[in-house]
Amino acid sequence: MATQRTVITGGAGFIGSHLCDHFIAKGHEVICIDNLLTGSLENIAHLRNHPRFTFLNKDVSNYIAVDGRVDHILHFASPASPADFERLPIQILKVGAMGTHNALGLAKAKGARFLLASTSEVYGDPEVNPQPETYLGRVNPIGIRGVYDEAKRFAEAMVMAYHRVHKLETRIVRIFNTYGERMRLDDGRALPNFITQAIKGEAITVYGDGSQTRSFGHVLDLVDGIDKLLSSNVWEPVNIGNPDEVTLLQVAKEVIELTGSKSQIVYKNLPPGDPKVRRPDISRARDLLGWSPRINRRDGLARTIADFKERMERAHVARDVA
Ligand code: NAD
Ligand code: UDP
Predict the structure, then answer these.
(1) Sequence-distant (≥ 6) Cβ neighbours of residue 206 within 8 angstroms
(2) Alpha carbon nearest to ligand 2 atom 19, residue
(3) Which residues contact 287 (CB under 8 A, 6 or more apart)?
(4) Active-site annotation holds for 148
(5) Sign of torsion, CA 57 63 68 70?
(6) CB 206 less than 6 A from any atom of ligand 2
(7) Number of C-beta neighbours around residue 264 at 10 A
(8) pLDDT, tens digit, for every residue of 34-57?
């Protein structure tokens, strides 16, 4: 069989770079397209000289050109941290709408299978917990989070239109809170904040009273779920996440314990529209893909903390040298 050619938009980002690693290891040729808005060349530095890896520094909100055959397109380009919803609202809307349209156009032109990185944010601030894929969500279109939630909801609608009209083979993964090695140190999401604060001995910033919940899944479990979804025939959206639901206060305490930090917890205002609960119903992934997560939070946090310590140390040394 000819070598599979896989395009990964957002491939220099946190999740995207793990996908690049995964498909290179599977023997694919990987074309990573990223404009480095929130990603980093550091995430793919180890792949840059690989004979089956190509990096294109391009904004996918503009027309995307790729030479030759393409078998798969995984569309992961988009800022994803709530801290960026206020900083980059127009870029988020553009990449969710125009970027998705361009990536679908490329898939149609090449006859490639298309996979969209959607999100649990399509459920908004949910009234049902856990959230099954059949839950239609509760999103405020004009809220701060609306730029991301609506962009992803639009992207899902666009994918389904290409599926129905052009008979494109499409997959939609609804990703729940994912963490792990290579997350941006200053990304602004809860775990990068807590881990960097704990390592530096600074106060841990819990928003609200910390009673809101999330369900954190490790990136390698996510990559495994995405691989299974891509090779399945399931075109309906599939939740991928770890159903181990926890309050943010509990996670903050776990990070303090696992880093051996003396940091104190401080409480800050809860951002507007912050979902009160979030937990995936993963029955569909279990039944249709035979997937369930394997990395528990303690182990996942321990390896993430080790990665953060190493990168913070390197950044520190680089600063001292300069
Ligand atoms: P990330 O910011 O690390 O990665 C996003 C990548 O997309 C970055 O490398 C960025 O430079 C690139 N990018 C952004 N706009 C672009 C554009 N116009 N053209 C080309 N590249 C562009 O974030 P992440 O956490 O790795 O998220 C990746 C994807 O997964 C996103 O689509 C996000 O919505 C989705 N997702 C992530 C999570 C999570 O918990 N991490 C949860 C749900 C969904
Ligand atoms: N959060 C927090 N402290 C921080 C950053 C985030 O308590 O320093 C909270 C945030 O209000 C939310 C949860 O942690 O309730 C998860 O936030 P994150 O930004 O990781 O992603 P979200 O799930 O909200 O998209």
Answers:
(1) 248, 249, 252, 265, 266, 267, 268
(2) 189
(3) none
(4) yes
(5) positive
(6) yes
(7) 10
(8) 999 999 999 999 999 999 999 999
Is 61's C-beta closer than 6 angstroms to any atom of ligand 1?
A: yes
| Both structure tokens of 106 | 């490329």
Residue 16 CB coordination number (10 Å): 25
| Region for 201 from its dihedrals, namely left if φ exceeds 0, alpha if ψ lies in -120 to 50, beta otherwise | left
pLDDT score, position 280: 98
* 84-134 confidence digits (pLDDT tens): 999 999 999 999 999 999 999 999 999 999 999 999 999 999 999 999 999
Distance 45 CA to ligand 2 centre (A): 29
**Nearest ligand to residue 82 Cα:** 2
Residue in 21, 120, 25, 7 with CA at minimum distance from that of residue 67: 7
Nearest atom in ligand 1 to the alpha carbon of residue 13 is: 9
* Residue 59 burial (CB count, 10 A): 19
